[in-house]
Amino acid sequence: MGFKSYCWSIGTTSFRVDQLNYKNECQLRYLNELFTSNPDMEWDKALQTKYFDLLVSKDFIEDYDAIKDKDAREKTSGLADIGLVYRKTRHITPIGDLINKISLSGDFSSDNILEIPKDSYVYLLQFLKYQINDNTIQIRPFVALLYMLSKLEYLTREEFTYLYPTCMNNNDVLKTTADILSSRGKISVDNLLIKKMMSMDNYQEAYNLLMTSDVIDESVMEQIGMNRKSGKYDRPFAKVYNVLKTLVIDRESLNDGEKILLLKQLKDAFSKINANQASTWKSMFKLYKNTKFNQEYLLYFYGLNICSCITEEEFKDCFFKTWHLMKWKSTLEDYYDLNKRYFNLTDIIKYENGRFRLVEIAEYYFNDIVEKMLFKSMVSENDYEKYFTNYLEIDKIYPECNKTETDITNTINTKYGRTIVPGKLEEYLKDIKNNAFIKMIEEKLGEEVLLELLDCFKTRNDNRIKELVTDDATPSTIFEYILGIIWYQVSGRIGRLEEYMNLTLDANFMPKTHAPGGDADLVFNYPKSISYPKHDMLLEATLSESTGQRQMEWEPVSRHLENHINKTHNKYDYVLFVASQLEERTLKTFRVMKNYQIDVRGEDIGLKIIPVDVDLIKVIVEKKKTYTELYDIFDESYNSIQNGMDWYNNTLVQKI
């Protein structure tokens, strides 16, 4: 009748992970630095402390009061979970080295049949191999997810959070899938969880103890609570149980004054309970600081399911199931964000409108083979570390995955009635993806939201920025992303938006931050038209302000443009430089670059850099300026004889 695992999770709740790609890449670099500087040290307390101090020096974490070695272990445990470092030594594995090389190259472009970024494909291979194989759990969690999404089309947020992680083996996966399929809209997730809980021997034994005990004291409560950390946390529930039982079972013999007195005792009893456990109960009973126990509250209280029980047996049944359901849901909710973020690394799981789905290409790829994948034998414990930490091609992990573009094209044409011509699958999928991207923008990032975001970038309201877009990217990355969306609209939505962005996007078309790279932020390609010559526009963005802006931006922006022109040999290429707040010396410096001469096919030209701030971008959005209009303004501005602030105000601000 002790605690037994009823779910699994990836990572650790001690290290909450936003910007997971970025943090993985940074830690791989820092671990390389650590072991290079300390080649003879093992991963013990001393080296763990050194690693903590290194993270502080890199501004990866703030210098706070922590147990340094423990914190270092927690920070790196997620890397070990997904095979980027060895669990015992924390040295980087071949898989970790591959992720590190991709990061250092700055090239995340797709080179695989699933059309996902290079690093995402490596993570996908890892999760296809990832297994949990111990006394109570034998499952490949990610393959189980592929199976459930293939069979069910989607998982709701509740199903993903509470039902999917309680699948301990393949039989559970099949049963849970069948339960969801037959119960959607009929049976609640809570009822399915209770059904699963009551099928476990230890819960059945604990339930029987409660039902047969005449006196429910702290000892009984400790046994039936089966707390995974310590029974002492459940002992105070004895008082809660007995006060609540009196309120419920004896309600007909109690007057309102006696009920209110007992309610005060109940509130006091909850104050003796661990806050994490007590919070869901207090929320259910509305036991807040300012709660008034009056006739209105009594009507609410006795309207609750647990408070409307008639017999003691009924009350015991309801108390037991409610208590453990709350425990399960609290734990599973704790794991939700971890599981979601880790699986998001693969970029084949999207979350929209409260539902998890496979992206279209992944659905075509896995749908007809996932059942065979699910029932593949587990890798033995002795072989698992080598298997998991080394790179394997997808068909070496699962022979069924030996698929070609022709196979996928045939699947789409046969199953979905399409007529994709051989060799045109990539174009078809890119068009599908771009249309979905545009739909997402229209639904979530309309003009009103874009204008609010531009204000947030100016005032550095970072929390609101993350709330409106994503917390998996830094505000600087999100700034580039939003400017890219705005300029795509300005340009008449010509071409595919993702191809203009030097960013990687997740399956929901949200930006991801990577460790620093080196090219221009966004590059828009414009073919020759009656309004302008063929050219590229490099869009560079910064949230840096004041005196540091010129120092940080002048050299890289000028270098990016010069390097780009040297590649294209096109004298018409230029930079649009956008700052949240444009510093005067920055714009003056960029204006001077008109006189910096470079040779293009035997002709000396200056560097055309047009600086604008967020306020001007807002005007462009509000006035729905077209690129043709703006190109003329930028060209006239560049060719003007004015300089300094007069140049900026007269040729850009007034004209726009």
Structural features, described:
With 656 residues, the protein is of the alpha+beta class. The chain contains 31 helices and 13 strands. The protein has a four-stranded mixed sheet. Helix 6 runs parallel beside helix 8. It starts with 19 loop residues before the first helix and ends with a helix.
Quick recap of the structure?
56% of the residues lie in helices and 7% in strands. It is an alpha+beta fold and 656 residues long.
Spatial ordering of strands, largest sheet: 8-9-10-13
Extended strand count: 13
Question: Roughly what is the average pLDDT, rounded to an integer?
Answer: 91
- Fraction of residues in H or I helices: 55-70%
Query: What's the overall geometry?
Result: globular
* Number of separate helices: 31
- List the uncertain runs: none
Structural class: alpha+beta
